[in-house]
Write a structure and sequence with these properties.
By secondary structure, this protein is α+β, with helices and mostly antiparallel strands. The protein has one domain. Helices cover 63% and strands 8% of the residues. It has three helices and four strands; from the N terminus they run αββββαα. α2 crosses α3. The chain is globular. The relative contact order is 0.14.
Amino acid sequence: MTFEQKVKGVDDSIGRGYLDLVVNSYHPLFEEIKTRAKEHMVSEQIPLIDLEIHSGLTFKQDGEFYNGKNEKVDLRELPKIYQKESNYIAGCGDNRSHRTPSIHEAMKDALSHFRDKVKKSLADVL
C-alpha cells in the first residue's frame, strides 16, 4: 500500500466518523419535527410534504423521507442531498465563488428547511 493510499484511508475514516457524529447529533431534532409532522399529516389527511428539492425530496405520513424515485432516504443521506442542492442552485446562478457546504452546514440546512416546510404546512391548514 502506498503512502497516498494510507492517507486516503485515514481521510475516509475521518469522513465516516464525522458524518456519524453529525447525523447522530441531529437525529433527535429530526425526530421531534417528524413526530409533529406525522400527527399533523394524519389529522389533516395530507399524504406528503414536498420539500421542493430539485431531486424530488418528500416527507410522507409514515415518517420517512423519499427521493424522486419514491425510494426511502436515510437521514445519513440528507447532507449529501443538500450539498448537491446547494451546488445546483449555485450553478443555476452561475455563482463561481460558491463552495459546497460542509456536512454539518448541509445537515443544519436540511433540518431548518424541513422545519420550515412543516410549519408552512401547519399554517396552510389554519
